[in-house]
Amino acid sequence: MTQQITAMRLAAHGAPEVLKAETLDLAAPGPGEVQIEHLAIGVNFIDIYHRKGVFAPPLPVPTGLGMEGVGRVTAIGEGVEGFAVGQRLAYVGGPPGAYATHRNLPVARALAVPEALSDRDIAALIFKGLTVEYLIHRCAPVTKGDTVLVHAAAGGVGLIACQWLHHMGVTVIGTVSTAAKAATAKANGCAHAIIYTEEDFPARVAEITGGTGVKVVYDSVGADTFAKSLDCLRPRGTMVSFGEASGPVPPLAIGLLGGKGSLFLTRPSIAHYTAVRAEYEAAAQNLFAAIAAGVVRADTITTYALGDAAKAHADIEARRTSGSVLLIP
Ligand code: NDP
């Protein structure tokens, strides 16, 4: 049975204003799908890349947006096992389309969620927390006593990284654009906050580490920070370039990695670290355990009504937000 839903969609790539509310007919869930009513929806910088059309190839338009959410199951498609009508679930990935009151979702992306966690907490932490989970445990693992550099440390991913790494006994050097964000990062476990819009961050990292450099740089800023980040690494350190909030990283001559100390470089995506169902579930369990233990927390959340998605995008792009950003249907 079809039902009418409201979705924020775009007909062409562009500025936040291309996001418009539309009333649509949603078909019954197909084979292998569950239909959900969203309770809270996470906004991620990846949605901004999708909206702008900067990925190659860009998302075909017209399209919905949004890669994560928390919802309650309203209908079950043929062949679906393990989920029941009325059950709450969360998801990361699948076809973009979370910015909607309801949607159909491949059940392969659905995760059962602990009852104790609020809708807001899960939506604030599931995508960004799973990103941190794979970055610090599986992509470039670190351990007690290590020192790392986390760019945009007061952002959504950044704050969770500070919390989790601090708990593990890793010293976090973070970069932020303002003194207020420096205070937020420090309150979440960042030992040294560098205001990279005012200070030369490689010089500060050298000073903090006594000239040694860090084991890993987790760099989601891209164009503005990539080259200088290589100068922050110790020999045989790892450069994790996992985002491009300031623009794409220019082409690189790989000889540079040798000259700067036999460095490792990776450009990971959460898609490849959660593609295998068993890994996806194990990562979620790891995250839920960290949340239950109070290691990872949704202390800093900004919420917008679903219809204000364009404003949410504008605020994130203008670097006005800290922590996680949610849309509430
Ligand atoms: P954030 O909340 O971190 O927002 C982005 C932050 O980047 C801003 O707050 C800002 O912090 C900083 N920034 C630096 N330069 C710019 C600029 N020119 N324009 C805008 N922001 C800038 O977003 P998310 O937590 O949603 O995502 C963080 C990053 O992680 C993104 O780059 C995203 O693409 C990436 N990501 C990658 C994944 C992957 O698997 N590869 C998965 C999930 C996220 P400040 O003001 O302090 O400089």
From TrEMBL:
Swiss-Prot/TrEMBL keywords: NADP, Oxidoreductase
InterPro entries named among the record's database cross-references: ADH-like_C, ADH-like_N, ER, GroES-like_sf, NAD(P)-bd_dom_sf, QOR-like
GO-annotated cellular components: cytosol
Gene3D superfamilies for the chain: Medium-chain alcohol dehydrogenases, catalytic domain (3.90.180.10), NAD(P)-binding Rossmann-like Domain (3.40.50.720)
Domain Enoyl reductase (ER): 14-327
EC number in record: 1.6.5.5
The name this protein goes by in its record: Quinone oxidoreductase 1
